[in-house]
Design brief:
The complex is a heterodimer of chains A (194) and B (88). Chain A has helices spanning 7-13, 18-29, 32-48, 59-77, 92-112, 116-125, 130-139, 144-151, 155-179, 187-193. Chain A has 194 residues and is mainly alpha-helical. Chain B is elongated. In chain B, helix 2 crosses helix 3 (44-61). Chain B has helices at residues 13-24, 30-42, 44-61, 70-83. With 88 residues, chain B is mainly α. The chains are: A mainly alpha (194), B mainly alpha (88).
């Protein structure tokens, strides 16, 4: 019996990645109901586009690409899509210097406070494409090259976006610590508080 | 992979900081990795910085959440696919 539509192949090759796609969707949406809809849309789009899948390539990455595109589409529909400006990566050293200056206190703080909710909030507030890249590399554990293939961008773009995303999370943590009165902030702030 | 010429040899603090995330992500070549590790072993400031960066990334990774009911989700997805023609 032939299977011209390839539905048996789809069932065999794509469905086993459902838990991975669900986790990725959950990381993007941070909401299980939204993630369920996203997973369903991902698999429907994948099934309809199965004829475009190149046999022998990575199904999981292909599904992640579809999932991420569906996620962007849903944000657009809800008018929630905010794209970050790319900026200039040469700004990195000065920003790293800023983080470095804060680090002396932050290193201790990470072990003293529950930063999970603050990180979760920081990721939720990340604009695209930073949330996707942080999710792919830091949550799903993809290498830069793999993430580049999912997002269909050069690996250098993955690197700069990932670094900006992490920097944004770090700065959010610093603000969180300052809000809790646990980080010094600048000298003026310290003087004002004393 | 981060180009090898992205890091000075022997690496100074600035080039280590620039390459730190690549290094922690396993995206540096073996020679660069070894040089950065040697620098971190001898430079308390950069080592402390690296520890902080690693800690933040590990805490981001720790937010990885599995679906609470994967069997239900799978049933729903299968039903939707069957409506669309899977197995039909």
């Amino acid at each position: 019996m032939t299977d011209p539509s390839g539905t048996a192949d789809f069932e065999r090759d794509a469905l086993p990645w459902l838990n991975d796609v669900a986790r990725f969707a959950l990381s993007l949406t941070r909401d299980e109901t939204e993630a369920d809809d996203l997973v369903q849309m991902t698999y429907l789009n994948a099934f309809r586009g199965w004829h475009t899948f190149k046999p022998g390539t990575d199904v999981r990455k292909w599904l992640f690409t579809i999932c991420r595109n569906a996620f962007l589409k849903s944000l657009r529909k809800q008018d929630r899509l905010v794209f970050s400006e790319e900026g200039d990566l040469d700004a990195m050293p000065s920003v790293m210097g800023h983080i470095y200056a804060e680090r002396q206190e932050m290193g201790d703080l990470l072990s003293r406070i529950d930063v999970g909710p603050a990180i979760d909030r920081a990721i939720r507030e990340l604009p695209e494409p930073h949330r996707s890249i942080l999710t792919l590399v830091d949550v799903e554990g993809l290498h830069y090259q793999e993430a580049a293939e999912v997002l269909e961008v050069p690996v250098g773009t993955v690197r700069s976006r990932l670094f900006r995303a992490r920097r944004a999370v770090q700065e959010s943590l610093i603000r969180h610590a300052e809000d809790m009165g646990l980080a010094g902030g600048n000298q003026e702030g310290t003087d004002a508080a004393s | 992979m981060l180009p090898a010429d992205s890091v000075n040899f022997p690496p100074d603090c600035e080039s280590v900081v620039r390459a730190l995330w690549d290094h922690l992500d396993g995206e540096t070549d073996p020679e660069t990795t070894r040089s950065i590790d040697e620098h971190l072993a001898s430079c308390e400031g950069c080592r402390s910085h690296a520890d902080f960066e690693r800690d933040v990334v590990e805490r981001i990774s720790a937010l990885r959440r599995e679906h609470s009911n994967p069997d239900r989700l799978k049933s729903e997805v299968l039903a939707a696919l069957q409506d669309a023609g899977l197995g039909g």
